[in-house]
Specification:
Blueprint (H helix, E strand, L loop, with lengths): L4 E2 L20 E5 H7 L1 E6 L3 E8 L2 E6 L13 E5 L2 E5 L6 E3 L4 E7 L9 E8 L3 E7 L2 E5 L4
Parallel strand pairs: 1-3
Antiparallel strand pairs: 2-12, 3-4, 4-5, 5-11, 6-7, 7-8, 8-9, 9-10, 11-12
Length: 147
Amino acid sequence: MSSEEETRSSPPPSSSASSSSPPPASHFIGKKEDIVQARRVTKMLNGGRDILVLFHQGQLYAMDQRCYHSGGALQHGDIEEFNGRLCIVCPWHKYKITLAEGEGLYQAVDDPTAKPLRTQWRSKGVKQRIHKVTEVNGNVYVTLNDQ
Ligand code: FES
């Protein structure tokens, strides 16, 4: 699936009617089966918000496509676990961003004089904008986080 402009959310015409409906102000991203197969989908929403939706270990995640640091294309980043937390690793400068919260993780050195050096994973706090993903009847929607 390629990037494309998407305005108001609506399921494709072929979807069946249901009592479930997408969240208000959400944007239709695609069929879940297509996203699962593609693993990563990018989409431009609201005329300029580039969003990355990805499927990893049975879970859907959505975040701004561009890295908070300097705009790296996160859709090309590897997904790895650091300190028990799943992160996307920006392909540009290797910043680690948690998939679920958008926290920036880094390795801190508490005592630079200690031998050998001991490091700990720490959080810079939430740095990357994460968006809410909702699945309704096999259709995937994203509600933008405007914070
Ligand atoms: S642009 Fe992502 S780490 Fe620098």
